[in-house]
Every structure is written in C-alpha cells, then in structure tokens.
C-alpha cells in the first residue's frame, strides 16, 4: 500500500514538486528513496522495508526519519499556517454554518500514540492506560483540518494535566494565538468570548467549553451537550481518518520518541494536504462515525488524555450557562434537537 493509493495522481505530482526544492531529495538511495517513503502509508517496519527494497536497515531508518522531518518543514507553513485574527473569524463562521455552534474557533482533543518502550526511559512514557505513548494534542477547524498540533509529550504526563503545560495550553493562557476576544451570537445581542469545544478531559475555561456532568442533569444541559458534541465530533473524525489512512498507526511505533514525534507531525500535514488538494474525497461531517470506530479498533492510536482535577471559574460557568440558554431559546433551538434527548424536560 503506498501513497499513490492514498492520493490521486495530481496530488502526488503536487507533493513531489514540493520535495524537488529540497536538495537532498533530488537523488535517491539505490533508486528506492521514493519507495521507502511509503513507510507512513504501508506501516511496514524498517527491517521489512530493508528486505523488500534491498537497502540496509540503517539507510531505511535515515530515509524515513529525514522524510518525515522534511515533510513537516516543507508543508506546515503551507497547509497549517498559524491563523491570524481574520482566519480565526473565518473558522468560527464556518463552524456556525456547518454545526450551528456560534463563536467556535475549533475542536480540541488529545490522543495517545503508542510507542515501544524507549531504552532506559523507566516509566517516563508509561501512561495511566497501561502502555507506553507520546501525546498528540490538536485543534481542528470545521472541515477537519488540523489548525494547531502539539505532539511529543511523555505519556506519563496525562494525570498531571498535560494540556496545562503544553505549548497549546500555555499559548491559550497567555493570549498568543491571535484569537478574537469577543463576539455576538447571531440574531441576538448576547456577547460572549470566542471558544473552543472539548470533551471532559479538558478544563472548562472562558474560551474552552466542555459538557455538563450528569450530576443534577436536565434536558437543557443535555441539549447543550448534544450541540457541543455535534461540533466537537469533527476532531474525532479527523483522528479517525488519520488512523484509517496511515497504517503506521495500526501498531506501536518501534522508534525513538523524537522520531515518533516527527512522524506524527508529518502525518498531520499530509492529512491537511489531502483535504486541501482533494476536498471532495472525504467529508468529515458525514464520515466521523465510521472513522471513529476505525480509530477505536487500532492498537497504535488510542485513548483520550486526562487532566485530573479541573477547577472552573465563575465566568466560565456563566459562559456555558449562556450558551445553554441560547440553545434552548426560540432563537437558538434547532427543530430536531429534542429528539436526541433522553432526559425529561424540566417542569415549568
């Protein structure tokens, strides 16, 4: 299985042309460099590729490692550029159009990428689920493209709150992501901060919305949770698509953590490249369920992060309550939303 099976011919040509500008990729090792680059798509290990292409294991390892690093260097500013304020606004507009979730700047999620235990690492990469991993944190837009990725954290960090110490979490806290600060919910005069949508693993903050817990659960809270889940599922669809497309993720990676990090980064930019080059190939809006199931069945790509105890501010609670009231108001309600609820309506 190779990249030609993952991309159409025009996309392959476009990707190849981008590599032509990198001097070291203009030549091939024994004529097989391009074939060994199929490592990501096939999932074959270095020894298997070495036998198949009759190239030394050390050469295979160097080629695949170099290829992943160059993929990121060549593509990330083209397919995953840091958004400016206008681009964030465009993302929010598209989220509202596609998922009826206003003021949403993206969907956040985190996953463990399985690796084999690195030598002399002790329990550094051993996570609470019982395997060795690095952590991928990501934000996607409404089309399923990765907007921000932060990968490489040791699996053992999860219980200490990897989001809080990650580059993504720190950037959100320090306000260095060029985010718009406040907007008005359409057809109302309600002003709220722009937000990201996340699951229970993440903290509830002024700019991060997560579901209500099931304590003192009401129909109104369930409506909010369903609306949030509808928007958040796009990131699950992205992870599912990545897991199906790149067979390397179907087993624990037998490489050093820094190489695994570069490999995952390369996969994220290839994911975006395919969406941009072939926008009609897969719709993230209607394929998330299938992709989510496929992701859950893979051994190398599992588990959401946890963050331990998260304390919410009063303002974050107020923001979430305001969204909930909007979704259950005549202005913000959708015709089908109550059909998805199992909680009894709150008595008047």
From TrEMBL:
Its cofactor is a divalent metal cation. Its main location: nucleus. GO terms for molecular function: hydrolase activity; metal ion binding; nuclease activity. Keywords: Hydrolase, Metal-binding, Nuclease, Nucleus. It comes from the Eukaryota. One of its GO terms (cellular component) is nucleus. InterPro entries: HARBI1-like, HARBI1_dom. Residues 108-272 form the DDE Tnp4 domain. It is found in: Nucleus. Belongs to the HARBI1 family. This is DDE Tnp4 domain-containing protein. It comes from Elysia crispata.
């Amino acid at each position: 299985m190779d990249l030609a099976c993952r991309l159409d011919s025009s996309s392959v040509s476009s990707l190849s042309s981008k590599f032509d500008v990198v001097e070291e990729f203009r030549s091939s090792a024994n004529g097989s460099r391009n074939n060994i680059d199929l490592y990501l798509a096939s999932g074959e290990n270095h020894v298997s590729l070495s036998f198949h292409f009759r190239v030394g294991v050390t050469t295979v390892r160097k080629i695949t490692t170099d290829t992943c690093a160059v993929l990121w260097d060549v593509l990330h500013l083209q397919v995953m550029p840091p958004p400016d304020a206008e681009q964030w606004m465009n993302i929010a507009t598209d989220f509202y159009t596609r998922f009826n979730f206003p003021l949403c700047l993206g969907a956040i999620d985190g996953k463990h990428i399985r690796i084999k235990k690195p030598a002399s690492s002790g329990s550094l990469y051993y996570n609470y689920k019982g395997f060795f991993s690095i952590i991928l944190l990501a934000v996607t837009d409404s089309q399923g493209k990765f907007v921000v990725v932060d990968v490489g954290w040791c699996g053992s960090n999860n219980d200490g709150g990897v989001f809080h110490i990650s580059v993504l979490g720190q950037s959100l806290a320090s306000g260095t992501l060029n985010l718009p600060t406040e907007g008005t919910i359409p057809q109302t005069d309600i002003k709220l901060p722009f937000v990201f949508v996340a699951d229970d693993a993440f903290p509830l903050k002024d700019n991060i919305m997560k579901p209500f817990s099931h304590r003192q659960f009401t129909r109104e809270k369930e409506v909010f949770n369903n609306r949030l889940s509808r928007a958040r599922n796009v990131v699950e669809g992205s992870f599912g698509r990545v897991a199906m497309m790149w067979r390397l993720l179907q087993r624990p990676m037998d490489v050093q953590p820094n190489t695994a990090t570069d490999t995952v980064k390369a996969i994220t930019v290839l994911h975006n490249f395919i969406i941009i080059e072939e926008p009609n190939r897969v719709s993230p809006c209607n394929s998330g369920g299938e992709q989510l199931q496929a992701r859950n069945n893979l051994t190398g790509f599992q588990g959401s992060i946890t963050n331990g105890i998260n304390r919410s501010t009063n303002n974050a609670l107020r923001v979430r309550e305001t969204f909930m009231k909007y979704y259950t108001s005549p202005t913000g309600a959708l015709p089908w939303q109550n059909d998805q609820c199992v909680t009894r309506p709150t008595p008047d």
